[in-house]
Amino acid sequence: MATRSYAIIGTGAVGGFYGARLQKAGIEVHFLVNHDYEIVKKQGLRIDSPEGNFTLPQVYAYNDVDQMPACDVVIVALKTTHNHLLPELLPSIVKPDGVVLLLQNGLNIEPKIAEIVGQNRVMGGLCFICSNKVGYGHIQHIDYSAINLGEYQDQYQPGGISDRMREISSDFQQAQIPVELSEDLMFSRWKKLVWNIPYNGLSVILDARTDEIMANPETRLLAEELMREVVTIASSYNRHLPEDHIKIMLDHTDKMKPYLTSMKLDYNAHRPLELEAIVGNPLQAAITQGVNVPKISMLYQQLKFLDARRTGNREQ
Amino acid sequence: MATRSYAIIGTGAVGGFYGARLQKAGIEVHFLVNHDYEIVKKQGLRIDSPEGNFTLPQVYAYNDVDQMPACDVVIVALKTTHNHLLPELLPSIVKPDGVVLLLQNGLNIEPKIAEIVGQNRVMGGLCFICSNKVGYGHIQHIDYSAINLGEYQDQYQPGGISDRMREISSDFQQAQIPVELSEDLMFSRWKKLVWNIPYNGLSVILDARTDEIMANPETRLLAEELMREVVTIASSYNRHLPEDHIKIMLDHTDKMKPYLTSMKLDYNAHRPLELEAIVGNPLQAAITQGVNVPKISMLYQQLKFLDARRTGNREQ
């Protein structure tokens, strides 16, 4: 099997961690770095992790895609709020037979990428990871690291398990990152949205941690009702989530340590919210199908208000 | 026509204003005063108002209902969160042929009063007034003062226009307070709830003034959708609000000066919210009728969360 080269677009808590682990496993990785460029160029990357701390004193770091080689796998680990940059970033760094792997939350983010690099050159991945960027080139990995991988096909038709999925999976497993292969990326996306929509949304609106949301019977019920609405939209696309998925998500959240969602961290840091990818696009998908999801609709309306007031920005 | 004596339970921004204006018009008024008792006893009441400032150096002030005479009209101008005190306060101060007039917002607050003083001894009044208590015995009246009066009958059956409504109205008009007589108190309550539910609720949840809610297209639409849900509940009780009522409320709010709702003022002051009267009881009324009002339901769930966290209290 030929070895594959990787590019990491967005060397933050997610991209920095996975890229560093791949490189540590002997794989060739090229990092696009933004603010940290000078430091990472000089000092490399540092990962603190319960699975073992390590430093990579030397990495291929770039602050300009024109300097980067074309790679086999281009991992996009930006916030979706920066996806408007991708038409400039992607074309030159994906090999003709390469693929773009979007490690991002939300729905309907792939179609625009397919417009840039072409159909059949896009994969989606859902990360189940807790990590933070704590300093320049310094990432603190807290827990989990699994990725759920799927091929993107036009209109989210199920893409099956491809050879390149297996190849990428084998690279990640070499880096001790558990990978689950999904025959149906849209199914996987809805499954994760069942958690992401209620907790990301309510944590921002109510200024609350997950444990606070779960401790109050009213908001606990609200979270469950929002989950049901997500399940209903998924069903309208013939993605029937397992009967017990909501119960599992609630139990799982009960057992989590008090947790600030990524949207709440963005909100607190005055960054724009990943509102369209995580809430707006799923809502639009419901409207397209004529599915009534009033509580998701209200969540979106409230988040748009807060996002507009806080940042003065709009997601692009 | 005999003259009527009035008792004011709750000498705050609303009760203090109306009671002072009645006394200034030559009517006998007895004020139940809480924190301000010593000052009001000594110095009376001071009203600043665009309709004319005035002071009442001497008022009948009490800090104990046992000292108060029985009156013809007992005006309850407490927050509904204090209504649990009324079984102790009311019985001795209402004349046998007297009446209790509730100047409070919300729905289904009268039944408990009828249990205390008897059916046919309860009226409801909706105040359209902007006023604040700014110091001990000192009330600043900002704008409006109109009252909408109606008889309470069991189950909110329309009570028609009674003689005592006309008499009370004449007293208020003597005090230059515009009064509108309502043949159907429940109709009037729903009409006011169309405004109160969206703006009180959203102002607390989104930490927003009315003008901010109206300036953002998402929350403006949300306010309108909440209004539609209120109208739907009202319809299920055969109270059909005028076609253009929602539009009038929206236009009216557009033209208002930036305004913090009373629920938001309570929230900011760490007082318990009038959540059950204004949102919970209308929601319960919808559930009773099998009417689906998901956005009011979500508003209630969010407010319960915020109220419980902020005050550690529950409305009684």
Automatic annotation (TrEMBL), chains A, B:
Q: Which GO terms describe its cellular component?
A: cytoplasm
Domain (Ketopantoate reductase C-terminal) ranges: 185-305
| Residues in the signal sequence | none
Query: What keywords are assigned to this protein?
Result: NADP, Oxidoreductase, Pantothenate biosynthesis
Cite the EC number.
1.1.1.169
GO BP terms, alphabetized: pantothenate biosynthetic process
Q: Hey, which pathway is this one from?
A: Cofactor biosynthesis; (R)-pantothenate biosynthesis; (R)-pantoate from 3-methyl-2-oxobutanoate: step 2/2
A GO MF label: 2-dehydropantoate 2-reductase activity
Residues annotated as domain Ketopantoate reductase N-terminal? 6-153
Q: Give the main EC class.
A: oxidoreductase
- Determine the domain of life of the protein's source: Bacteria
| Reaction catalysed by this enzyme | (R)-pantoate + NADP(+) = 2-dehydropantoate + NADPH + H(+)
**What role is this protein assigned?**
Catalyzes the NADPH-dependent reduction of ketopantoate into pantoic acid.
Q: Which NCBIfam families match?
A: apbA_panE (TIGR00745), PRK06249.1 (NF004887)
The family this protein is said to belong to: Belongs to the ketopantoate reductase family.
Q: Which PANTHER family does the record associate with it?
A: 2-DEHYDROPANTOATE 2-REDUCTASE, PROBABLE 2-DEHYDROPANTOATE 2-REDUCTASE
Q: What is this protein called?
A: 2-dehydropantoate 2-reductase
- Protein species of origin: Planktothrix serta PCC 8927
